[in-house]
Amino acid sequence: GSAYSSKVFRVTFLTLAVSVAVPLLGVTVLLDCPIDPQPISLKEPPLLTGVLEPNTKLRKAERLWENQLVGPESIVNIGDVLFTGTADGKIIKIEDGEIQTIARIGHGPCGGCEDEPTCGRPLGMRVGPNNTLFVADAYYGLYEVDPDTGETNPLVSTKTLIEGQKLSFVNDLTVTRDGRKIYFTDSSSKWQRQDYLFLVMEGTDDGRHLLEYDTVTKEVKVLMVGLRFPNGVQLSPAEDFVLVQETTMARIRRYYVSGLMKGGADMFVENMPGLPDNIRLSSSGGYWVAMAAVRPNPGFSLLDFLSEKPWIKRMIFKLLSQETLIKFVPKYSLVVELSETGSYKRSFHDPNGETVAYISEAHEHNGHLYLGSFRSPFIGRLDLQHV
To answer: What positions does the domain Strictosidine synthase conserved region occupy (predicted)?
Structure first.
């Protein structure tokens, strides 16, 4: 009897499986895919050995102002006063531990991703020479904000056509010491910030990369095109070149803005152990790079696995939302310090993102590393003397 019942079970199970799988397959074929993924060729990720050896140093970070702010992407300081922009469109000031909203570029309601285009999303932030804030809002463009009055002054609007095209995803900026020039990135000409996962997974090179805004002539120039998710930008200490993180390709490009190489570009760091987000100066003359995701080696890197399989990406995006997909991205946190020539000096890890997850920026101030995040409800702070 038992052999018969197990046979019946097998047949019933197979029939059920087929009856579910066939329509599902049919539906998947018919469903629209929001992205048109391109195959990308990535080299095997670097081994996490030597200075990249995994550690738990980021777990020593303290969480500041927990649950009083959400998604503090980029952090700057004027003296000991901190400023950041949050997921609900606010530009906030933190003085003597007190949080105050000083400005908002967009308007409410502000809640989920669907509100972002009207609410605004301040991303990259910098301090200009007269202690004004320069802010890159993903949806509205480049702004100057008075940190005392909260007055906002638009510099480059996303509605303005630049070489026949509007800006779609203004991401980060870096300012010359004299405040004359602002170099900034437009991450995509197709996707907005709320669809950043589509941008990463599609892998197309539609980023307009690097633009230059002259605060005196008010002119905008496109310096570089054809990048895959241009993201964080940083002028070199000598202001002779700008570094641009090319997130999808796990590398950093260098564009020369002065000197003999002016107008030329080359590779600064290739094949990084993660997807670089923002980049900021370190006190040693090098650079802090925060990784939005890691490419573990040894280990399994989903991103690398999918890079040359657009058909799998299509299936995934037909069936799952971005919010669901983000849950499958390992919460491994990594910040690396690069030397002035782009070699790795040290690395700080939090293997499961236990203390700090989704790090978007590492901003050094007064012996501490302030850790911004595009999702977490706090700012991390790591004491550099004790790691």
So the answer is: 171-259
